[in-house]
Amino acid sequence: MSQKNQEKTHWRKHLETPYLHGDEIPSDGIVVTVASNGATTLYSKQSKQEEQKKIITFKEVEKPMVLTNRKAKQITAALGTPIVQEWVGKTFTIFPIQEKNFGAIGNVIFIRPGEIKKDEFNSKSAGWKKAVEAFKNGSATITSMKKHYELSPETVAKLESYLPKKK
Predict the structure, then answer these.
(1) Using CA of residue 141, residue 145, residue 147, residue 150, what is the dihedral sign?
(2) Which residues pair with 82 in a beta bridge?
(3) What domain range is 145 assigned to?
(4) How far apart are CA 40 and CA 54, in angstroms?
(5) Considering the domain boundaries, does residue 154 fall inside one?
(6) Of the candidates 128, 130, 138, which has an alpha carbon nearest to the alpha carbon of residue 158?
(7) 123-145 pLDDT, tens per residue?
(8) Which pLDDT score is estimated for 1?
């Protein structure tokens, strides 16, 4: 596999941190469903002592997320309720944004309502010719395209016509 096609890994993924961080989320976000809420004890660098922190677990992500005031306000706006028990089973999108945090710029978790909106892809889209070539050489599939774009049944049929013929 060429180095260009290899997946690049952020250093944070190599550390065994117990809580979800913005660097661990894909740039286009993840739609998550709240599984539960709870509490944990964490050491605070600011107060130099252990503090009780609220956490939220998700069905789609292994690591829990520490619930800060900012994230709680964003979830409240996304779900329309400030009651944490009413968040269980509800979905919203988490995604990373770059922000200055503790003097350094890094990715932090940001929350917005609803599902990730995918762009419509069809024969008038800018990357159509590249997509056709990828289908012809077998490096793209309908499934891989649907991860990034909304495809109409007509577009799917047109793209499938470019797939290599099975013998």
Answers:
(1) negative
(2) none
(3) 119-160
(4) 6
(5) yes
(6) 128
(7) 888 888 888 888 888 888 888 88
(8) 45
